[in-house]
Design a protein that fits this description.
The structure is a homodimer of 515-residue chains. Chain A has 515 residues and is mostly helical. In chain A, 65% of the residues lie in helices and 3% in strands. Chain A has helices at 3-43, 50-68, 71-80, 95-111, 116-139, 142-162, 169-178, 184-205, 220-233, 270-294, 305-319, 323-336, 338-341, 346-353, 367-386, 394-406, 432-451, 455-460, 465-474, 484-492, 499-513, and strands at residues 241-245, 251-255, 258-263. In chain A, helix 8 (184-205) packs parallel to helix 21 (499-513), helix 12 (323-336) packs across helix 14 (346-353) and helix 15 packs antiparallel against helix 17 (432-451). Chains A and B meet through helix 1, helix 2 and strand 1 of A and helix 1, helix 2 and strand 1 of B.
Chain lengths: 515, 515
């Protein structure tokens, strides 16, 4: 090859890469426009605006898909593939660009198989299903949601079929959308260990009384002000995001410098709002730092839902429900709520926020029983997609599994099968990432504590900079460059394991309850 | 022509019309997606999210334009035109469909002349200019806005050039975007009458002291609650819209059943927030009723900015600042703010909300001086587009015109040329519609009072149903079917006139001040 033709290839590669980045950025802009419409739907949309919003979302999802499945991107990806032997192709590029091509190629291969009409119809159906779920939950009326849920199941199957999956492969394909690298069979193994040891721990703890003072009357406006202040304390930049309220707390990214979280406040439950805020903050820190490191490209996001959840659950539970954390923060909380808290001890508060008591609601669950809620959903999802379970049978199957796994029974479907939005939005295969987040999280945390001795006393002083720096450099700044198993190995040198999480819980609760 | 071919034509016409409606609905969905992004930018967008939002808006405006200038729509419009002699064409259609074709054809003829790249670049530039205006106003720094403003002027000229207008025609073309049927020369005539009689009335009123109790400390949360309650009282359906706060109050339509208004509250000014809310409500009532009558088509909106402004200013001023209105509402306002108002009389409050005192700020202006603020902007816009005035000269020209027209001088540019967002958004030719709104409004009101004798006592009883019914049937339900001059003639039998407005003011203030 002559120097001139090599030079020409390099220029071609640079141009092709720049064009791919352009298409990718535009796709992402569209995704964030959709995120804005959804954020608004969850926070502020008037009741009667829902139907038209579904039409709007269908158009925007159509535009997302048009970019995600852009034939020009397909052509450029093929030409830039290392398999072409192009000297300026994958092989000769900087590592970050090779990761970009890997991620983009995978997304393209999936998107290109979905017809445009299917994507738009799915978005419209999801919008209406979401609205139906809100109503169904409010009215405790599973039957009203049923046809929508059936549509969601059918559409998920159809999507997997477009990708070439059938039968037992369908659920694996759905799992892979949220958590690449962990098929159902592997989850079964980890979840089996979790189920056994968590159930044993629950039995050892047994029934315990709560700290009633956390259920007294807490002014909603004051709770909101406290949450906002806590965001400051934990290092959130209010110029790059905001906090609102919604029925179901969530985090969403509307731009590289615009990550929104929501929480909700209950008058008779101080704990719920605080820990929802901290949980969502964990997601927001991840998104904001990934975007800073990798900008508006496909790489500048969380690696997977499970890794995401590891961050939110680390902040919420491992940090937020630690004694050290409240050594620093309790006095200020007492200042906000003197009538309820001034005479209470840190110890009583610490016991209160770590009360273990299996209940029907996942997002109110304690750390010990939480993963059992996930296992329940995982098993029902497997049933739905293996054909062993129909949508109609879900409410009864839910109640039976609740009795079996947690020993409780929801009083209503609203507090049972209707409690979560995920299925109503067609997000089958999403739930397992919550439990995976617990596992990843404690594997990361073990390493963080080894790298940062004395971190507990920093937390007690309200000093969170070292944690931000460590999580930022080790995890967040990598964005989507590494798949979850690779990221885990890079950070900890380990493969996925349930034991650090189980040991953390067993140590914490043995001490707390003097078992 | 045989019956069969006639039948075929009818079917063809129906299909073509349905397809046009489809394209039109999709364009409107895109417009409302853009409106959602803009609403969010004005209410909740974090500071650093602005730059990406401009990119997002450029994409959405591109999608709007792609539909507005869809060649398929152009072809269908030509084929359905009455000039084709098609028996199922314009001539044979129901009146509402003929109006639809008229409105769509006019919009298409304009849109098709604008290149896609120009529309997207303009949207991007407007987003950045809007953000620059927020900063410039905050920092009282006109120089920082200047390059953006120059871009806005250049783009407005370029847009007019695409449409085939040059020189003196440019400003008329811009005016026509907001108010079809009133070229600058005609505005000069009406505004001349306004200027003379309003200045004379201002001189007769002379300098007067205010009612200081309206400037005491009013809790912002209570003001917000009062505004929300007032919306109920006036008949707003909270399932079809909502109230938020923003720096500059506005109304925007995010869906046929989703009209959002904003207001803002000042601790030391009770009046400002209340009347901003009522003003924007006037716009919202119009939009919601038009959408109910004519759905998501291009017809289901306000007829023009001026007609829109007639509705908002009717509610704000003619109804909201009337003595009858507060006979019904003052006791409840006193209940909200007993410390400041309990000992005040209705008469003192009525004088307070109608205090005439020329000031630098348009949106705080009293009814008498308000139109003079508009005349000032109209004259400066004429100067900008005739080439007699440069962007750089605007601040000085603004101050000189303020002295001349209103006898006041703004202390800073922030309170002068930077006070309004319109020019920074490229909306040249928009301001005159505010003054036209005053004129239309009083022409409508005169007819309403003739049709509904005793309306004043209904208002005093807090009964607004008859007003909603009259405005709804006579004006709102017509949407954009009629151009402003035709609508005015249909409702009142008159052509545009400044006299009903002037007579209303002269009567009201002669009585108020015992002149």
């Amino acid at each position: 090859m002559t120097t001139a033709s090599y030079h020409k290839d390099v220029v071609y590669t640079q141009n092709a890469l720049e064009r791919l980045h352009q298409i990718d950025r535009e796709r992402k802009h569209w995704e964030r426009i959709a995120a804005t419409l959804r954020w608004d739907q969850e926070t502020y949309l008037p009741l009667r605006g829902v139907a038209e919003r579904a039409e709007q979302l269908a158009l925007v999802e159509g535009a997302v898909h048009r970019r995600a499945a852009d034939p020009e991107a397909g052509r450029l990806l093929r030409e830039l593939g290392s398999e072409t032997g192009n000297p300026g192709g994958g092989g000769g590029l900087p590592p970050v660009e090779r990761d970009f091509l890997k991620v983009l190629r995978r997304a393209y291969d999936r998107a290109a198989l979905l017809p445009q009409e299917f994507v738009e119809a799915a978005a419209r159906a999801e919008g209406l299903s979401l609205a139906a779920w809100v109503e169904a939950r409010r009215n405790n009326d599973f039957a009203a949601l049923m046809p929508h849920l059936q549509t969601m199941v059918d559409m998920a199957r159809k999507k997997a079929a477009y990708w070439g999956f059938q039968g037992a492969e369908v659920y694996d394909a759905l799992l892979d959308c949220y958590e690449p690298g962990f098929p159902a069979a592997e989850l079964v193994r980890h979840f089996g260990i979790l189920r056994e040891r968590l159930s044993a721990l629950l039995r050892r703890i047994g029934p315990r009384g709560g700290e009633a003072f956390l259920g007294r009357d807490f002014d909603l406006g004051l709770q909101a002000r406290y949450s906002r202040e806590l965001m400051d304390t934990l290092g959130f930049d209010h110029d790059r995001g905001r906090l609102d309220t919604s029925a179901h707390p969530f985090t969403t990214t509307l731009g590289s410098h615009d990550v929104r979280i929501t929480t909700r406040y209950h008058r008779d439950n101080l704990v719920s709002g605080i820990f929802s805020t901290i949980h969502e903050l964990g997601h927001a820190f991840y998104e904001l730092r990934a975007a800073l490191a990798l900008g508006g490209s496909s790489l500048g996001e969380g690696a997977s839902m499970g890794i995401h959840e590891s961050q939110s659950r680390l902040w919420e539970n491992v940090i937020g429900r630690s004694r050290a954390f409240w050594e620093g923060q309790f006095p200020r909380l007492q200042f906000f709520f003197p009538d309820q808290l001034a005479t209470r001890s840190l110890g009583a508060f610490y016991r209160g926020i770590n009360q273990v008591r299996p209940s029907a609601i996942r997002i109110e669950a304690d750390e010990v029983s939480y993963s059992l809620h996930i296992i329940l959903r995982f098993e029902l999802e497997q049933g739905l997609f293996s054909g062993n379970l129909t949508v109609e049978e879900l409410p009864a199957a839910w109640r039976a599994a609740m009795r079996d796994l947690l020993g409780v029974e929801p009083e209503t479907d609203a507090q049972g099968v209707l409690q979560d939005v995920h299925w109503a939005m067609g997000a089958f295969g999403y739930f397992p990432s919550y439990a995976l987040g617990n596992l990843y999280g404690l594997q990361f945390w073990k390493k963080l504590c080894a790298d940062l001795p004395g971190i507990e006393s920093a937390i007690a002083k309200g000093c969170f900079g070292p944690i931000h720096a460590w999580l930022g450099d080790q995890i967040h700044a990598w964005g989507r460059r590494l798949d979850p198993p690779d990221l885990l190995r890079r950070v900890t040198g380990e493969t996925l394991s349930a034991y650090p999480f189980l040991e953390y819980l067993e140590t914490k609760y043995t001490e707390l309850y003097g078992l």
